[in-house]
Design goal:
Blueprint lengths: L4 H18 L8 H21 L2 H7 L3 E26 L2 E28 L2 H8 L4 E2 L6 E2 L14 E26 L1
Parallel strand pairs: 4-5
Antiparallel strand pairs: 1-2, 2-5, 3-5
């Protein structure tokens, strides 16, 4: 038996609500903020590629990718998270993106991590830039370590890579991620 739509969509609605309440915007409002995000994204990508050199080739063979250098999440029963990033096609920046997430269930703590989404085909990148990408509980991410990207699978045209930064979270919750895109 499947959960009612309202219950299945609760985590995404929660994440979107948290983003609206916190006043988040897809792109930083100042030129300095956008430059800081660019530097952070490049540093995060270098750090992730250093952890797993096979990520470089994986991203080169993709139609495009999004880099979120610092996604923060936290919760106690109800949780949420947010992060900003950049979207690339052929190694060139094409726009800004943000990620909001929500979850409900057994959880406590907080953490931050880097996240990279790789898009298998142009139509997968187009779906992302059109706002048609949201992840439910069924998508799993690859935690980067040497050689992990070489064997990473695409799920519905998207591969997800994460690298923890700090914090700890105990989680047995149902959640999802929603993405927003704004062209450069």
């Amino acid at each position: 038996m499947q959960a009612p739509n309202a219950l299945r969509n609760a985590p995404l609605l929660l994440g979107a609500s948290l983003a609206l309440l916190s006043g988040c915007a897809t792109a930083p409002p100042t030129r300095a903020g956008r430059e800081d995000l660019r530097e952070s994204a490049m540093d995060a990508l270098r750090g992730m590629e250093s952890s797993d050199p096979s990520l470089t080739g994986f991203l080169r063979s993709s139609a495009g990718y999004a880099v979120f250098p610092d996604v923060g999440k936290g919760g106690y029963i109800v949780g949420g998270g947010y992060g900003r990033g950049l979207v690339y096609r052929g190694g060139a920046e094409i726009g800004f993106a943000d990620i909001t997430q929500g979850s409900i269930g057994l959880q406590a703590g907080g953490q931050s991590y880097m996240e990279v989404l790789a898009f298998q085909r142009q139509r997968d990148l187009d779906r992302f830039t059109a706002g048609g990408l949201a992840f439910g509980a069924s998508l799993s991410a690859v935690i980067l370590k040497t050689g992990a990207a070489a064997a990473a699978p695409y799920t519905n045209g998207v591969a997800v890579f994460v690298k923890p930064i700090a914090g700890a979270m105990i989680e047995a919750a149902v959640g999802g991620q929603q993405f927003t895109y704004r062209p450069e």
